[in-house]
């Protein structure tokens, strides 16, 4: 099952997409307005989010599937960020190409191969909700950066430190800032509009294997495709469970959070994002996350 947060004036609505169609869960249970509400209900009932949803489908309104691609009168898309609370964290150097790319940008390249081969992964804070955007919103590149790239990643959604679903993440990164000195990593990673997630959350129970998913990214400028490549999450050197354990152990983890698992799609060194570019990231069995670029 795929869960979407729908935009509505003042009161968000929660929708679920099954093989039979798109359903308005809020219509069936008005107190279920967000995915976080559903996580709470599942925890209280000692059940899964899919089982809770299945019980509500008979009383839920059927929505047109075209709604997921629609625009509202204010120009925003009908689909909002699927997770509206908690934090976003990220893991780095989990794919060989990521290790190679960060070596290329850095004057201290040996540290990246050490992380790639180490027992301890790199896990770092990425974003708060007010720094995170959803589908069809604008992701940011820093005005004080000369080299900026998107980083497409599988996102793990956690509720009470348990894996409940998966989403798509864009870990925007200033390679020029981090490349000057690895201690600048927070400035390269954490800023306004530095992260995008969406367009939905695929429940963990309905996803067969997060370690075998096709992932792709295209970057377009003025209608011309400048980057188009794909990979598979099977190339990740670490498991989802290993990364989650490193994130949650000895940490005060919010009730709801997202952990991005690293990137394996890196544009060539002579490429940098510009304002107005379109970044589209797709992951098999989840969907496609689309965002335009704005300077912040």
End-to-end separation in angstroms reads 35 Å
How many runs of DSSP E, i.e. beta strands? 19
Instruction: Round the Cα radius of gyration to an integer and report it.
Output: 19 Å
What value does the average pLDDT take?
91
Q: List the uncertain runs.
A: none
The biggest sheet, with number of strands, parallel, antiparallel or mixed sense and barrel status, is: 12 strands, mixed
What is this structure's SSE topology?
Layout: E1 2-6, E2 13-18, E3 21-24, H1 25-28, H2 35-45, H3 49-56, E4 61-63, E5 79-80, E6 87-92, H4 96-105, H5 110-117, E7 122-127, E8 132-133, E9 138-141, E10 148-149, E11 152-159, E12 162-171, E13 173-174, H6 175-180, H7 185-189, E14 195-203, E15 214-221, E16 224-232, H8 240-248, E17 256-260, E18 278-283, E19 287-295
Parallel strand pairs: 6-17, 8-14, 9-19
Antiparallel strand pairs: 1-2, 1-5, 1-14, 2-3, 3-4, 6-7, 10-13, 11-12, 11-17, 12-14, 15-16, 15-18, 18-19
């Amino acid at each position: 099952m795929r869960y979407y947060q729908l935009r509505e004036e003042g009161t968000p609505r929660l929708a679920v997409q099954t093989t039979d169609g798109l359903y308005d869960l809020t219509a069936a249970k008005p107190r279920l307005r967000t995915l976080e509400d559903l996580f709470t209900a599942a925890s209280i009932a000692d059940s899964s989010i899919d089982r809770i949803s299945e019980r509500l489908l008979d009383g839920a309104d059927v929505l047109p599937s075209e709604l997921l691609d629609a625009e509202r009168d204010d120009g925003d898309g009908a689909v909002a960020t699927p997770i509206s609370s908690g934090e976003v964290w990220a893991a780095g150097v989990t794919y060989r190409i990521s290790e190679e790319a960060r070596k290329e940008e850095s004057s201290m390249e040996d540290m990246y191969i050490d992380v790639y081969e180490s027992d301890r992964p790199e896990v770092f804070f990425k974003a708060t909700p007010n720094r995170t955007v959803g589908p069809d919103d604008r992701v940011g590149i820093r005005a004080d950066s000369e080299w900026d790239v998107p980083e497409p990643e599988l996102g793990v959604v956690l509720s009470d430190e348990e894996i409940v679903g998966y989403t798509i993440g864009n870990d925007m990164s200033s390679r020029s800032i981090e490349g000057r000195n690895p201690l600048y990593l927070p400035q390269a990673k954490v800023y306004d509009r530095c992260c995008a997630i969406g367009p939905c959350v695929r429940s963990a129970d309905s996803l067969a294997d997060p370690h075998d998913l096709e992932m792709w990214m295209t970057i377009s400028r003025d209608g011309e495709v400048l980057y188009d490549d794909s990979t598979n999450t099977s190339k990740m050197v670490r498991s989802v469970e290993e990364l989650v354990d490193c994130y949650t152990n000895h940490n005060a983890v919010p009730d709801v959070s997202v952990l991005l698992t690293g990137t394996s799609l890196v544009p060539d060194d002579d490429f940098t994002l510009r304002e107005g570019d379109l970044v589209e990231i797709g992951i098999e069995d989840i969907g496609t996350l689309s965002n335009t670029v704005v300077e912040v």
